[in-house]
Structures are given as structure tokens and as C-alpha cells.
User: Fold these one by one.
Assistant:
Number 1:
Amino acid sequence: MCAIAGLFHPTSTRLPDTGLLRGMAHALRHRGPDGEGFWAEAGLAFAHRRLAIVDLAGGAQPMASDDGAVVLTFNGEIYNHLALRRELEALGHRFQTRSDTEAILHGWRAWGLGVLDRLNGMFAFALWDRDRGQLLLARDRLGEKPLHYARLPDGGVAFASEIGGLLAIPGLSRAIDPTAVDDYLALGYVPDPNTIHAAIKRLPAAHFLLLRRGETRIPAPLRYWQAPRAVAAAPAQAAEELAERLQAAVEARLMSDVPLGCFLSGGLDSSAIAALSARAGHPLDSFTIGFPGAADERAEAAMLAARLGGTHHAEMVDSDPIAAARQQGAIFGEPFGDPSAVPTLAVCRLARKHVTVALSGDGGDEIFAGYRRYRWHQMAEAVRRFIPARIRGSVIGGVARAYPKLDRAPRWLRAKTTLTEISLDSAMGYYGTVCRMADRQRRGLMSRALRTAVDGHDPAARFAALMGECDPDEPLLQAQYADLHTYLPGDILTKVDRTSMAVSLEVRPPLLDHDLVAWGLALPASLKLHGGQGKHVLRGAMTPFLPAEVMRRPKRGFANPLGQVLRTHAGVVRDRLLGDAMLDSGLFDAAALGLLVDQHESGRFDHAQPLWHLLVLEGFLSGVDRAALAGFAPRPMALAG
């Protein structure tokens, strides 16, 4: 795992500013503490920060071909690099190292853009081909590794693994994108291809960008891989086939020249990874954390680890979520509202004390329908198909609008969300289940200037477009497909990458092997949702390898219980949300912010989620230059001395 950065001036014959490049690399040093490397030539410069995992002696980067005409800076792991190496050697290529990086370098010369189709792994890289005059930026199929880029004031292009690498460039606009603020408040993250800064873009998963010498225009990124959009016939022995596929994916990710472990909770996904690693003859060190007052899975994890033969490490972590909210901007480079980032960072810190690489169970919920919202979406869709749209909109929608919002009532009385979802069409109904702050609530918190700036923007539109690309008779696949392009790369994988890289830990999720993902998504819904429970086929696949109690255990959250903490410390929350960072930004209405805190403190409403998102945003804004908010700030800004 590493960090990459670079500068490209397509019409220049001069060396780029290498001092600037070193500053970009320094901002990314946490991702690669084991070394750094640089390459510079006319109009181009690459930087690399290395976390050494494979070929510790010979894998230094940037890596160049023998003649220096092709240069690569790469972040990630290519799990099939040995098979690619054999194929390339048969074509006459001669390798100088054992590094997976070199397989990409030779693969480009042999197959051009076709090399992307052959790579099995997680990656973000930049490759310069001097003879062709082309700079290729590429990102893996699921979005496990990040890559950001920006147009420079002088017409050049810069790229970096994280936003912070680009913010090290003086003169690059820091202006806040108002639609990104709207997206963040709605979803808890800024979805690709945007970032919180209007000038900085994120290369979407499964896309590449090809820049050419002499051309100053940045073309639109192009997709090289497509997830299934229709359901295939069910395999004859689906559970058995899944077990074989997942075993192969796990074994491929055991490739390492440094200590390797795994995250282990009491849940099915991480337990499956640990069990299959042990079955492959590699019982791994495992890592679990617990939080006071939250679901504590340390005991269950310890029992499974003892059964599998690995050394188990567990800690109880007592964190301050309000203080943690202020740290998210520094970790993620922009507002990131998933509160489970706090325990994820804690378990990464624990793991890094013992290993350099950890396997995770991420992806199982998205691929095999583990989220509760998938079951609700299936049920709501069944009702929609039974009741005409006119009646749903007028009658059920009317009831939903009149029904009180009973946040503190027993679950069976909190029907407003369900009624609202049923009254809407399929895409808008599903968007309602993933939306963290409803449109009316968001707009009510915004200043007039921000409302004007986001007028016409609808965070739900991307969900409607994505779900519209799938078979309309497969509502579960539609929801999974939407998550695969939004929630998975924007929330889950961003969370794992930034928190692990903050402590220089590499994380590998075997369930996100792209062939396994394509196979799993295309399974019929009955193999994923069965008897009111998700992951049906995964449970069948793991029955021979895991104890029955793991199979029966319900899914638990991985986050602190925020509601009571924010209620107990409402005074601190109010001070933060009505402090200078928020009010000087010009983005919010002070009275509306105060009312939100008051309602939560009263106990009649549960606003924990929006309050956490706002606290995270406050922490981010406290570190933003006021000039980035010049279009919104209501107060005169002091001039720098």
C-alpha cells in the first residue's frame, strides 16, 4: 500500500517544480512511511510514498522500463501478478524484480489499455508512456484505492491519492462546492466524481483517464468494467460454488512479505474470512474492539479465534464522539459523516501494533444483501406493485405526511418512514432509506445563499439514474447496483482506506474480488434474501466451516450509540454548531441549528445522525480558509496581516 502524486504539463518542455512535488508527497507520508521516490522529465513528475508489502528490496517506485520510456507510480496490490508475469515472460518480457508493480509496466507494453481488464486487485496508478505521449490514470473496479486530480492555474494537471496531496499546491482553488455540501448532508459523504472542493475531482471506480501530450483539455473519464445489471440463472450448487470462489479470493489475498492478520467481529463476513484463511493453512492474528454501552462482540470473536487457532487481540475503547467528529476532516480531507469511522480507526490502530496487512469482511452486505434496507425495499416494492401509483401517492402519501414522527416510540409505531417509502416510486423510495437527512430538513438548516446555490440539485437523481440502468423486474439488484456505485465506494471503502492509511495499515477485502462480486450480484434474489434474512447463500457456503451460533447471530452495528451522548452534552454540541466556524461560513441558518439541538436535547426527537454530520462539518470548516467560502460568508472577513 502506498501513496502516489504527480504533475503533468502537456505543452511544457520544462521540468515541473520538484519542490512542489516533494511537498505533495510529504502530505501523504502517512500512507507510505517506508520510503519515497521521485521521477521527473520534461512536463512530467511522479512521486511515490511506499508501505513495503511485497518484494521489500526490489519494489521501489516510481518504476521505469529498461529504456526509461514507460514510468509507473502505483498504489495497491495485484493478486494475480505471478500469472501475468508467466504470460508476459512467454511473450519475451524480462522481469527485474518480484514486485507486482512490474507486471503492470510490462502489461501496458504488451496490451495497452487491455492491461486493465487483466488486473485482479485493488489499485490506483499513473503510467507515463513517453513514446505515445500518454499519461494514464486508472482506478480499480470497486473503488478500493482512491485517486484525485485537479486542473492547475497554469494549465497543468495534478493528481494524488488523497485530497491533502493536492491541497499542498499553492494557488489551487479551495472553493467549496455547494452541491457537494448538499450531497454530504443527504448521504454522509460526497459521492464520486466530486469532492467538497469544486476544483478537485475523484476518479470514479472502474474508470480511467487518458491525458495526451499537447492536449490541454481534460477528457471525461471512461469506464472499463461494468457490474451486472440483470440476474443470471441460479447455479446448480450455488453455496458450494461460493465457498470455492471465496476460498480462492482469500488465498490470493494472503500474498505478503510482512505480517498479516484479520479483523474479526462476531458477524458472518469477518468470521468467514478468518475461517477460510485458517482452512488455507494460515490461521491469522485477529483483532476486535469493544465500546462501553455499545454491542460488544469481543467474547464471540475470542471464542472463534481460539477455535481457528490464531492469536487474538482485543481492546475496549472509550472514545469521545464529539471530539472524534472534529478529527474526521483531517483524516478524510473533507467531511465524512459515517460514525463507524471512529471504531474502524480504533481497530486499525490495534492491528497496526502487530501486523502491516489485515483482511476484512467488507463487501458482504452489499453483494449478498445483508442490509436491513434491502429487505424493506423488497417488501415495499411488493406493495407498490399491488397498489396503483395514484392511490399510493394520494392516499398512502397523505397518511405518511400526517403521521407523526415518533423517534422515541417503539419500532412498531414508527411507521412514517415506511409509509413514505411505499408512497414513492421504487428509486425515490430506496433513496429515502439511504438518505441521512431528508430534503426538507436539509433545506431548513441552510442559509438563503446556500439554498440558492443548490437550487435544482437533487442528491436522489443519481440513484434514479443508476437503478434505471438495471432490469426493472429485479428491485433487489437495482438497490445493490445503486449501492455499488455510491455507498460502497463513497462510504465503506473510503472509510476503510483513510482510517487504515492514517496508521499505515493495508486492508484487503476478499469479498470484493471483482469476479466474485459480478457472480454474487447476478444471483437471483431468493439466494440472497430468504425467510426474512439476508446472505442466504453465504450462510449456506459457510455452514461446513463456522459454528451454528455465528450463522444465527443477528447483524450488529459497528458504532457508538450517539443519541444519548449528544443529548448529555447538548451544551457542547450547541456551542460547536453555533460557533464561528459554522456561522462565519454563511452556509447555515443559526436559528434552525439551535432548534435542531433543542429538539434532540428534549428527548422527543432523535437527531443524532444529522447532528453528528453537522459536527463533522463544523470540524472541517474550522480548518478551511475563509476565502473558500467567500460566496456565502455573511460577515466581513478579516484581511490577512
Number 2:
Amino acid sequence: MNSSLQGLEANVTQELIAVGAALDAGRVAEAEQQLARVLASHPGHPEVLRMQAGIHDLRGRHQLAIRVMRQALTLRPRDPLYHNTLGALLGNAGEYEAAIDALRTSCALTPGLALAWYNLGVMLTKCVRNDEAAEALRHAVAIEPRHFGARALLADLLRTQGRVDDARTAYRELIELRPLEGMAWWGLADLRTQIFTEADVVQMRAALQHPDATEHDRIAIGFALAKAMDDAGDCAGALAALAQANAIARHRQTWDAQAFSAQVAAVRAAFEPSPGRASAPIGREAIFVVGLPRSGSTLVEQILATHSSVQGAGELPDLPQVLAEESRRRGKPFPQWVADTQADGWARLGQRYLERTARWRQQRPMFVDKLPNNWIYISAICAMLPAAHIVVCRRDPLETCFSCYRQPLDGSNGYARRFEDLASFWHDFDRSVTRAAALHPAQVHEHSYEALIRQPEAAIRDLLNFCGLPFEAACLRFHDNKREVRSPSATQVRQPIRRDTARAQRYGELLDPLRLALKQPCQTS
């Protein structure tokens, strides 16, 4: 018997196995219903607690999930699977460094646990520690050659390096081994240069109906199929595939638009009037690029990272983690402690951020932090780092929201599953950055994607000037930069500026529900 299930009656053991299977498949309601019966009789059993933590996590109750899992770990402190689970939960909560520590403990306890090495690779990737991530993923594949998730993520890393042909080959090899492997199908779609064949479409449709396909597979394959339909000019078919994929994703991870709006409003209110800021002009070396996903932020980073003085760091988790550290230290969540923070406190937080990101200034004096949702924290950035530069990326809201809807965004992007939630999120963004730009005009620059497309050189000169950088002609040839890029736009930013990226007009009145949600006029027939 699995040692985790010791001390349980046979019927309870079978119920927990069923709960675990439901959780692995993302059927959270089913898992919750099954576990309720076991909780009544065995509330303190460590495996029951572990399953309960998994349910809390899928319901978006991340901190509660972590507390329950730590309770389970006190009962099984040497269990590598428990440390692995804690690492995964910490990662889902955005606590990546703590997740890496937990997963390294799991790997040390049982070096042959491929799952722990894979999860470690995932978390290292999220921290943009790609070399370490690749090493961990290779460990997973060496232990378990048919670990398809690890192989898919290694293929993703090839794509970040611009090795498109190698990535395509790796994805195709994965599909040969497991035609249901969703992330391989989406990896091909995300290369942007991939044109799916009729045979591919038939294979994807069959995979979506296969009983062994997980919900995770169906989500990724659904988005890939939508891309194939879009390429073929079948807009209605593409939207149908997207609706199905997003419905599954929303079932796995709910989004509370009202609660998010309240949170964003609380952050705005906490900084009006301004509680003060660090007295020293620190942070000039930091350039924050913020905005909604798919708004051109990767392109802006690529342009800046082509400058001889700027290192492109990617989507760093450090700013929200510094704020989370302070929240734990004070015993109250952000932004409740903002009003009590003096200039020296903000300076301490700013220095902490600069310490955490020091490795990105080893080769060049300035760096780009491109975590999109940092727009929520613009006023906090201004307080911590009064000399930092904040570039807000704006793109036509309809194009931005529709592009988000077409991507299998994960993590904190649950708003991208429904038009109503997307519109609500965009309006929260718009209100916040408009106010922040008015309050901090010297530190906030609103960059227009459409203006960049129309007049590239003028927009690039404005961008460099705002960041205090002299113009370099190389920035106009950003597509020649061979740096690693980890984002859905990785392939696009290695090409000259394109003027054919707009999609909404092609879909016409099919997108009227999104237009209505955004309070835009409907498309006339």
C-alpha cells in the first residue's frame, strides 16, 4: 500500500485515490464532494489534508492551501511527495523562491522523483533562471523518458532561444509519442510560423474526444485548433474552439471580477494622498514595462534590450514578492500597511528589490522588468524607487482583450476566459494607469502600440528618451537581437514590425459581445 495511505480503512483508501484522480484531471467539484465524506471521519490524516490543500488551491484559496499543506508536512516531514506538493502550491501562490526551496528538498530526499524535478524546472522557469530550469528538466527526462510535460517545457526553452526549427522538431516528436499531448500542440501553434495541415486538424479533433485526454490537454489542444481555424479563415470555427477551451479552463480556475476590482481600488485609495517615498533617488537602473498581456510589452522589452545599456530580464516575480515579504513581516496584507510606511521603509523595500534583481545588472547598467501585472503597483514602485522608469503599454482594447482570449494564459490570468471578465479587467487597468500617470508624470510613460506600428522610429526615440537613454540605431533593428525571449510573442519580436497583427476586424459582428462588454459600438453588418 502507498505509505501515504497508511492507517486508513480500505474503503477510505479507495475514496482518496478517487479524489486524487479527480484533482489530477481538474475535476475540482467532484474531488470536493468525494473528500467531504472522508473529512468527516479522518480530518487530521496527512493525506486527507494534502487532498484538501489541492482543492483549496484549485478554488483559488492559495494561502489556505499552503497552511493546510504545512500542517500535513508536520505529520510527514520526510515525505518527498509532500514537499513536492508544497512547492507546487507555493508556486501557484506566486511564492517562487519558497517553492524552489521546497522542491529542492523533495529532490534531495528522493533524487529519483521525476515529478519533483519537473516542478522544480517549472518554478525556475518562472524565475527566468532558464539554465537551471533546463538542468532540472533534463533530470526529470533522464529518470522518466516519457515525462511529456518536461519534454514540452524543454522544447519551449528552445523556442525562447530562437531555435524555432529545433523546437518544432521537438514538439512533433512529442506528438508522435503521445498524440494527446496538449502542450506540444500549443507549442507548435505558438511558434506562429506553423501552418497546420488538414491531417493535423483531424488529429487534434480526435484528441479532444479521446477519453485519456486530460482537461489540461483539452485546453491546450483547443487553443491550437482555434489557431488552425483562424489560419484557414474559419472565424466562427475558431471562436467555437476558443469558447470550449476557455470554458474548461474557467471550470478549473474561477475568477472573481468583483473581488479583483475591489482589490485594485483599495490599492489606488491607499496611495491617495501619497504616503511618501524614499528620499534618495534610487532605482534609475530599473525599467518596468507593464500592461495587459498581448499589448506589445514583449516588443517594447526587445527594443529596450537591444540598447547597449539595457538587459532584458523578462517577467520577474521580484516586485510582488518584495511586497508579499513585507506583508508577512507586518502581519497584514498589502495595501493595508501603506499608510504606516515612512520614507525609510520605502527605501528599504526599494533596496530589497534592487538586491533581488542584482544579477540582471552584471553585464549592463540597466534592466527591464516586464511582469505585466505590475501596473497594479505603479504607485508602490514610485514610492520604493523614485528614479525608476515605468512604461505602460497600451493597445486597442478590443484587440488586446481578444488576443488574451486566444491564449492559454495561466497563473493569475483567470480573467481571460470570459468576455465580461476581460472587459472588467481592462477597465480596472485603464482607471489605475490613467490615475497613476496623472500622479507620477515624470515616472510613467504611456506607450501606444498603434503609434509604434505607424511611426516606429519616432515611437522608439520617445521611449528611449523617457528612459534617459541616448538613441541607438540598433534599436530600430530589434529583430536582429538573439536574446532569449519567454513570452507568446517570442517569435514575433524576432521579425521586423508587422502591420497585420490585428484580428478583430476579420471577426466582425462575431465579437459584438466583447464590444458590448468593453462599452464599444457593435459592428454593423
Number 3:
Amino acid sequence: MSRPQDPPRGFFPFGNPFRMLSPKGSDLSPWLLSVLNDFELVLAERLKKLIPKNKDDILTISWMKLAMESLCETHSDIKILITDLHLPVSDWEDKWIDVYLDISVKLLDLCNAFSSELTRLNQAHLLLQCAKHNLESSCSEKYIRARSSLDSWRQHVFLKNPRIGNCCAILHSLVESLNLPKVKNSPKGKVLMQAFYGVKVQTVYICSVFVTAFSGSTEDLLALSVSGKPLWAKAVSDLQIVVNAEIRNIVSSGGATVLKELEAIDGSVKKLYPIIQDGMNPIEVEPFTDYVLEMGKKAEEFSQGLDQLTEEVDEFFKIVLSGRDTLLCNLRSTDSASNSAVGRNEGQR
């Protein structure tokens, strides 16, 4: 049974990682403490920026773009930290490398799933363009075509993507990986692992929000329990409270989607559909033209937003892939150097 003073276990099935990671004051030099504190303070500020002043901004394409930009910055920062620590790969323990490689491949899989969904949503834009073109005509036959395009659009955008469905297992695996390996006799290693912990918490949480946004279900929305010791702990806790509450509110409202721009377009489509379905002359319906313009404007803004978000997801993919490739190249270089040294030693015998 946990003692009353223990932090809540939450999503950590193996206990609190900071029992293993938190360095005692005597373990770290002032310089290492400064390096770690600087990293954590920047991460804390980055997480605070993701807490919107207006809850209506949550689960908009612009907020998701900001969240993905934040991930890119954090993953770039961890590469800089590794360089600043002067901790060559040859000093990394095998278990650190295994954890890093396993996590990176899972993140690449998530990126591919997100890109797949963004492409699928953007493909539907052509159907709305076709519908708008036909609705701007005065030909009844074209109104029938417009109705068919709107039908096809709704069927396409609200169809579940199996690749997003597969993200559930990846997320739960990443949650389990938050329990980092023990670090012994390596102050720099402790700093590295503690910094990695912050990176992973931010990454896993934001990815869970993306999966929720694309699936329309809160089943994969995480609420991560974090020790109070890292400088970014309160920021990530505040972020989860605000964002999770709004997402659950959106889902409970029974909308067809939790993506707010997509819901807005669907609202415009619902206004138009009965007008062209009832067989009346749409031009004689007073708000008809306004509805068509409204749908076209929202659809264009959504498509542009999807393009920008896709670029950020692609950038994150490149950063993760680059870090993975760099590590593998360094490992091969280290192995080659070791083999050469062994060869020289054997030749001298």
C-alpha cells in the first residue's frame, strides 16, 4: 500500500521515475545543475504557451500547429543539450540507447499516421470546391451535383482512419517507457535521463491529444501524473487540466467531430443541404448566397491550415529521424574504432 506522502501513481505502472532519476545535490556539479535547470525552465515556458487564453482555441488547427511546433523545438533542444553535456555515444549505456531507439521508431509511426489523416482530410477539400462551383450556378442539374458532392464530403471526412485506430497501442507503449532506466555513477547521464523524461512527457501527451482530435474519442486522451520535482511539472499539469476538460466537453456535446474548423464547415453544409434538397430554387432563399460564401471561406481556411499543420508534422518526423540516424552513425563509428583498436592490439602480439 502506498504511503500517504507518495505521489499518485497515475499512468506510471512501475512507480515514480524520479525515485530513480532525481539527483542528490552532491551528485551534480553547479554547472550540470545549471544545464538541467535551463532546459527545464525553457520547457516549462513552452508548455505554458500551449495553455490558451480562450478555451475555444483548443483543438483548432492553429492550436495543433502551435503544439507541433513546440514539440519540434523541444526535440531540437535535447540534441543541443546532449552536445553541451559533452557526453559521447560511447559513454551511453546500452539500455539508454535501446530506450531511445524504441521510442523514436514509435514516434515515426505516429507521425506517419498523423500525416495520413491530414492528407485524407485535405483530399475532401476538392469535394467542397466542386460543390461550391455547382452551387454558384443557376442550373438545377448542378444543384443535384452539389448535393452529391456534399454527401460524399460528409462520408469521407467522418470515416474512421484505421491508422489512427492503431495509435492506441503505440501511446500505451510510450506511457510505459516513461519509466526510465536507472542511472549509476554518471552525473551527466542523470541529467540526460531527467531531460529526456520531460521531452517524453510533453511528446506523449501532445500525441495523445492529436489522436483524440483525429479519432473523435477521449479513450486515448492521457492524464499523466508527474512528480512535483521538475521545474515544468506545474505547467504540464495546468495544461492537461485545461485542455482535457475542454476536449471532454466537446466530445460530450455529441458533435460529429472534435476538430473545431471541421465542425464549423459541417455546420455550413447542414445549412445548405435542406435548401437544395427540397427542390426549391435556392436563389430565392434569402441567405443561400451567404451560406455558399461562408462554406467556401471556411473550407479554404481549413485546407490552408491542414497544409501548415502537415508541414509541422513533417518537420517533427525529420527531427526524430535525424536524431535516430545520428545516433546509429555514431554507434557504427564507435564500433569501427573499437574493432580497429582490437586489430592493432592483436597485431602487436
